[in-house]
Amino acid sequence: MGLSSNARLLSITARLTSNEYESQQVSNAKMRLATKSQQASETYLAALSTTDYAYMTFDAQGNAQNVPLTAAVLYQYGASKNQYMLSNTAGQALLSREDAYHYDKAETLKDFIESYGVKANFRTLDLAKNYEYLKENKKDLEDWQTLMDNYKADHDVKVWADAYETNKEVYNVALTNYNKMVEELSAGNETFTVTELKKNDDGTYEVVKDGETKEPKKVLYGPYEIAETEPDKIAEELKDKYDITLGDRIYRSYSNPQELLDQMATMLSDIRTQYENTVTYDAYIESKIKLTNPTKYSKYVDYMEHLNNFNVELEELGITEDEAYTYDDTTKAQWYTNLWYRINGNSTIKSANPNYAELDNKLLTSTSWIRDALAHGDISIEMGSYTPTEEVNVQGQPALKVLKGISWTTKMFSSCPDITQRDDSAAIERAEAEYQKALADINYKDEKYQRKLKNLDTEHNALQTEYESVKSALSKNIDRSFKAFQG
Question: What is the DSSP string of 326-390?
Fold first, then answer.
C-alpha cells in the first residue's frame, strides 16, 4: 500500500505540473490574440483615414466628371482642361511613352505638333513651297557642312591668309587702274600711267614688281598704232615707253575708248570675284569646293537660294518663321506648344539636351503611385498656362517675345482647381473586410483557448483533490506503521 500510494502521488504531481504548463501556454496564446486584435484594429483605423485624389475632366460632350487621379488623365489632351505636368526631384518633366515618342521623332516644334494630327496652313503658297524644299533637302546642307569641315582640315588658314592679302592687293590695283582710265579718258587725256598687272596660267593675277626696287611697276599707256599681231615690228623705243600689260593681253593702241573700258571692266570683274572668294576663310574654302565638287556646290547654292527666298518673304510680311503658318486646331496646337517648351527650352529646334524622363506605363495609370509620390514629395505637379504676349522692349536690345507667353508653375496639389481629395472607399472596404476576417479568426481561437483553459482548470481541480486524498491516506498509513513498531 505504501509503495503504491507513493507512486500514485508522484503520478498526480507530474500531471499537475503538466496541466499548469499547458494552462500557461494557452494563456500566452490568448495574450497574443489580444495583440493581433489591436494590430487589426489599428490597420482598420488607418484605412479609415486613407484618402485618394479625384480629377475633374470632361467627356466628349463637354460635361464635367470626376475620375480617379492618374498621370494618364492629367496628360490626356482636352480642349476645356487645364494643363498639368508631373516632374521629379531633378526637375525633369515625366513624359508618357507616347509624348516621349513624338518628341524623339520630331526635329522642330512644327513636327511635334503635327504628329498629334494638327495641320499647319502656310500664309502663302511660296512660303509653303520653300519650307518644304528646305525640309526635304536638309541633307544637302548637312553634306555641304561636312564637306566644308573636310576641306578645312586639308587647307591651312595661313595659305588662305596669304591668298587673301595677294588678292586684296591685286583688286585694289585693278580698281585704281580702272578709275584712273575713266578719269583720264573723261578728261580727254591721251596718255596716262597705271600699275602693271599680270595674269598667271592658273587664271589668278598678280601685281608686276620692279626687279630692283620691288615696287609695283608703272607703265605708260598711249594711243599708238602698233599692230598686236606683229609685235616684232614694234620699235623698242616705243615699246619701252608706251606699252602696258593688262592681264594676259598687251594693249598697244586704242581707237575706241569705250572698248578699252569694257575690256578693263571685264578684267576688274574677274579680279573682284577672286578677291571676294578669299575675303573670309569660309569663302576661300567654298571657292575650292566649287572647282573640285561642282555638283554639291550647286545643291548648296540651290538650298541657300530657297532659304534666302523664304527669309525675304518672311521679312516682307513682317513675321517670324514660326508665324509663317497657322494651325487648324489652335487650342490643341497651343497645348503641345506648351509641352514642347517645357521639355525643350525656348527654341523651335529640338534641343540636344531635353529636360525630361519617360514615365513607366504602369505608373502612368496607377492611382496609388501618384498619391503616395505626391504625399512623400517624390514628384511635384506643375500647371501650364499661356498668355498672348506682344513684343517687349528691353533697353539696348531689339524687340523680344517672352517665350510666347508660356509658363509652368509648381503647385501644391491641394491648390489645383481640378484635383480634390476624398476618402478612399475601395481601401476602406478592403480594410474592413480584412478586419472582420481577422476578428472572426481571433474570436474563434479565443473561444477555443477559453474552452481549453476551462477543461484544464477542471482537470487541475480533480487532480488536486485526488492529490490531497492520496497524500492524506499515505500520511495515516505512515502513522499506523510507526505505532506498530513502537508497541
Answer: EESSHHHHHHHHHHHHHHH-S-SBPPSS--EEEPPHHHHT-HHHHHHHHHTTSEEEEEEEE----
What type of residue is 154? D
d(CA 322, CA 342): 17
Pairing type for strands 64-68 and 51-58 reads: antiparallel
Measure CA 260 to chain center: 64
307 near 84, Cβ under 8 Å? no
Q: Are 416 and 84 in contact (CB under 8 A)?
A: yes
Sorted by where each begins, the domain ranges of the chain are 2-49+425-486, 51-123+319-423, 134-154+285-317, 157-279
How far apart CA 71 and CA 81 sit, in angstroms, is 14
pLDDT < 50: residue spans in the chain: 1-3, 48, 224-239, 241-253, 391-402
Rounded-to-integer distance, Cα 313 and Cα 123, Å: 11
pLDDT in tens, 264-318: 888 899 999 999 999 999 999 999 899 889 999 999 999 999 999 999 999 999 9
In this prediction the pTM is 0.57
**Side chain identity at residue 461, one-letter code:** N
End-to-end CA separation in angstroms for the chain: 21
Q: Is residue 343 packed enough to be buried (19+ CB in 10 Å), middle (13-18) or exposed (0-12)? A: buried
